[in-house]
Amino acid sequence: MPREGCRSHTLAVWEQRAHRARRDIAALAAAGPGVSELHAAAIRVIGGAVSTELTCWAAIDPETLVISTMVSGQTRIPPEYEPRLAEAEYSAGEPHTFAALASRQQPIAKLSDLPDRERDRSGRLHHVWRPLGLDHELRVLFLDDGACWGAAGLVRVGGDFTDRETEFLAAVGPAIATATRLAVRAEAGRWTSGGHPAIVVVGPRGELRAVTPAARQWQDRLDDIAPGRFLVMMQALAVGARTAASGSFRARLRDAHGQWAILHASPLIGGDDGQVAVTIESATGDQLIGLLLAAYGLTARERDICREVIAGHSTADIAGRLFISTHTVQDHLKSVFVKVGVRSRGELVARLRPDGRRASRS
User: Fold this and answer.
1) Rounded to two decimals, what is the model's pTM?
2) What is the reported pLDDT for 162?
């Protein structure tokens, strides 16, 4: 077969693979799994086309760009390397972090594409991948309408990721983003509130100095996802707090049962240098509403109007508060009803705030 014919045939094969992968991922989303279950299944779909030695997928909070949960492929990274990977992810100057790629809206990134000077700054490469005998990394973001719902890191030894593999992942990424957004929407709708605040103190070397009984319960629930996951997440939060210009770091995480938590990390004043306190609280509807509105694909203005409706304001009040006409408010509400799948304000509030509060009918 002539060279041009070979290239055309190869391209067609990869396009067919991408089509099948998108179809399979859509079928997974339609089954209504949680985020972790979705990603575990999607890893197997992608693995049929792109081979790796290790892969780790993360769900990402689109508002904070912080990892909320992680799922590994069949081969997990050795536990002793997980803290190094978490520290690199939140360290200043680390190239191709998920947050940096999301801020640039860059869906695909290979370490090999970086200049030598930038690649040499990579803690992931020098302290994780090379000690494990791996030398090629590709990262793909799952972007949906500009929002980052997740990301995956793929690493392997030998040949670098090819252009065809990169194009395949770029083609499949949006389908994974949409499926992840739907899974988040389902989970965020099952939130529960209450419980007692939990406190964890992380030492300068990432060790747990203190864990309250309430925090132990969260440890058990996060470790149900994967053994040691709680420690890794606490270490990541501690790194984030130490490097943040504000001196504090905030994240939302979900446990193995889909319950969300709000975490705040900040360095302790006094005591040993480098200690960080992390508080954990069950997320309430108010704290998750932004995530849920984003998961329904609402525009910024539609989200503003939803918040006003949840607060019980009338159409006239909303128009005055947002400096728009009542007709515009109604037009936005019609769009919101379609996207959320409801027919009235009462149904909208019940869907977004399943705590019994009712909205004004005016």
Assistant:
1) 0.69
2) 95
